[in-house]
Specification:
Two copies of one chain form a homodimer. With 425 residues, the first copy, chain A, is an alpha/beta fold. The first copy, chain A, contains 14 helices and 17 strands. Chains A, B: This is Homoserine dehydrogenase. Chains A, B: Belongs to the homoserine dehydrogenase family.
Chain lengths: 425, 425
């Protein structure tokens, strides 16, 4: 049953070190008990002189070029944890082409080249491909979707898939300001010096595209996912959310239309009601919630990133591989039109100069675009020249609300584009 | 890769009907796409004349005796969903002995005969054994523990594993009374006419024993699990829990001692702080929370029972079987002493007649048993002859609190045995 795995690890940083530590140190006995040889023969690193924070066994060679991993005929399994999508593509595609099994944590690579990877794997059916670590670090959501929803029908998948922004939103909920929490996240090493990928939602975009592929079989190109980050969310939005007995979370969402014929995929902040398990998922923790016919609603909560959570997912793929238990990495391809124009109730925050007739104009513009207003919320006014107020809507299409917001922006009482996002229903 | 599965279904009730419906109707095309024949050849039912709530295909024969399933040499896979542990034991043991794969939803059977099943499977290594449906119906917790924690070290597993009692506790939290919610649960078909197995925690006992085996490799006989149900919990306990910014949940818990050398397993109501994901898991939903070295804390939430959630888990086992992806059902056996005497902060509700000096006596008894009191809570008193008050403790051993409670019960001011249970820390 068990196969010998001679592993080449490409990347000796945070995650690579964690994988090495588990395979060669803490769980060496467990791997021995599998009755198969599992050992890391080579680790390819960028800088051979850099001090490593893990101890390297005598049977492992550090090499300065990942080609020495691919060219080693004894290595039958490549673990790619180098990141990036240029060299990593050469590593992953090269390894598959040479018939080596691949385990990767690289969501960006998968999102950028999913159809190519699917095709290449079809040409090399003996190659096993694991990517549990690519989405939500320590949550086994890939394995679960690959194995436990096959007799079910998923209708929606959504969740908090970025720990950095959830950490920031959780802090903002306690009254902190966007700039302040971003600086704090950067000081703690949670956010990059250039935080764009996190705060503008691009990281979540890649993850929800992968989960949509797994849940629905549909390839969703990242550039076709309407994406709104958290950089426009202010602490005042949390005050309004509190009035709505809700909070604000940055979610990736993929949702079948009620007739099952179209798929809407989006990344956006959402107003999340307090009683939903997503609302209570705080700090850098991730959650994925799945709606389906058999299970109705199920949630998976765990760490979204970090050395050992991510390494744990890679090791789980490695154990499956050693035991011969890796199944098809992706479901059967399915084509389905994408519908960017999802329907929801919406939260719209307007920033205006107070003047007579604003509400009448807002009402007229809403009516013109077919947007039915549910409520208008107003915090106490301190400066009549810079007022926030919030309009909540009855269910409306995103495009209607966008048109409403564009029209509001043109009015002379407006002090900037309205911020809007959907309610999680 | 894929194997033909000729299935004998033993049990044509709620769960059996759900499995049949998925395999032979809603997901027939998916099973065809596996490239393997998967079909239900026989369904053994107790009463052949009873009307079934699913339509039976021409290739499926209803039989009145499960021996006709076991004796059919063409049937290579037996799904046992009949329940009970007498005949079900004959079915499961008989099928394994004949070299047929087994999928079962029967937690009671597994809990009662776990070492025997493990031994029998060792004698028949070609037999695959699936039991995802046995614990927490729709949560894939068995597969997750079998596959995704193998490079990790679990230190604690706990959760809400019984939907009936969680439904009842959720109702009681809103002020309803135990007797009233039990009657309601019975009327809705959630609770049996004899609700003992649910309300006294025996159902959870079987489930936590199975999860302890999976997480720690240790066989924990059910009769060695200290078990306290919810029948003594009153709505007044929820009032006190609210003062503690917490709620009350019936949990199964298995916990390694800090030195990793002993295992404590218990079933009891717990005081659960509001911010813990377990506190927000309401109604008949189940949750399993796992503490481990790599993942720190992770939670799995879903339906705990019901036709399609349970059937979904059985179908997931069936798909793995068809794909040749079923791994070892249990981890390597490990022996570890059981320590029933776990340490926690405790909640103790006393029922007394008001008289001078009660608090002094309570304090003396606590001191005598080494129990350090953290706080004393008292709701407004309506009848001085029947007063509730609550003592919360600093961390203490269960046995110390039991001795304290036994001593309190002997005092002349006492109106019944104190109710006590642990805080979830």
């Amino acid at each position: 049953m068990s196969s010998s795995l001679i592993v080449g690890l490409v990347g000796g940083g945070t995650v690579g070190g964690g994988v090495y530590d588990i395979v060669e140190h803490t769980h060496k006995d467990f791997f021995r008990s599998l009755g198969a040889q599992v050992q890391v023969k080579r680790i390819a690193v960028r800088n051979l002189k850099k001090q490593r924070d893990f101890s390297v066994a005598a049977h492992t060679e550090l090499v300065g070029d990942w080609r020495l991993v691919l060219d080693d005929p004894e290595i039958n399994t490549v673990i790619e944890v180098m990141g990036g999508i240029t060299e990593a593509k050469e590593v992953v595609f090269g390894a598959i082409a040479k018939g080596k099994h691949v385990i990767t944590a690289n969501k960006a690579l998968l999102a950028a080249y999913l159809p190519e990877i699917v095709d290449l794997l079809k040409k090399h059916p003996q190659v096993k491909f694991g990517y549990e670590a690519a989405v939500c670090g320590g949550i086994p959501i890939i394995h679960t979707l690959q194995n436990d929803y096959l007799g079910d029908q998923v209708s929606q998948i959504l969740g908090i898939m970025n720990g950095t922004t959830n950490f920031m939103l959780t802090k903002m909920e306690s009254g902190a300001d966007y700039g302040q929490v971003l600086a704090e996240a950067q000081a703690l090493g949670y956010a990059e010096a250039d935080p764009t990928a996190d705060v503008e939602g691009h990281d979540v975009q890649a993850k929800i595209a992968l989960l949509a592929k797994l849940a629905f079989g549909v390839h969703v190109p990242s550039d076709q996912i309407p994406t709104k980050g958290i950089s426009s969310v202010a602490s005042v939005d949390f005050e309004y959310a509190r009035l709505l007995n809700a909070t604000i979370k940055l979610l990736g969402m993929a949702q079948l239309s009620p007739d099952g014929k179209k798929l809407s995929v989006a990344v956006s902040p959402f107003i999340v009601p307090r009683e939903h398990p997503i609302a209570g998922t705080n700090g850098s923790t991730n959650i994925v919630n799945i709606s389906s016919r058999n299970l109705v609603s199920s949630s998976y909560i765990g760490p979204g990133a970090g050395r050992y959570p991510t390494a744990n997912s890679i090791v789980s793929d490695l154990v499956r591989l050693a035991r011969g238990l890796v199944g098809p990495p992706f479901p059967v391809d399915r084509a389905m039109p994408l519908e960017p124009d999802y329907t929801s109730r919406f939260y719209i925050r307007l920033r205006i100069r107070d003047q007579l007739g604003v509400i009448r104009v807002v009402g007229e513009i809403a009516e013109r675009h077919g947007v039915s207003i549910y409520a208008i919320l107003q915090n106490p006014i301190s400066d009549p020249n810079d007022i926030h107020f919030v309009v909540t809507t009855e269910p409306a299409r995103h495009s209607q609300v966008q048109a409403f917001a564009d029209d509001i922006e043109k009015q002379d009482f407006t002090k900037g584009p309205p911020l809007f996002f959907a309610f999680l229903l």
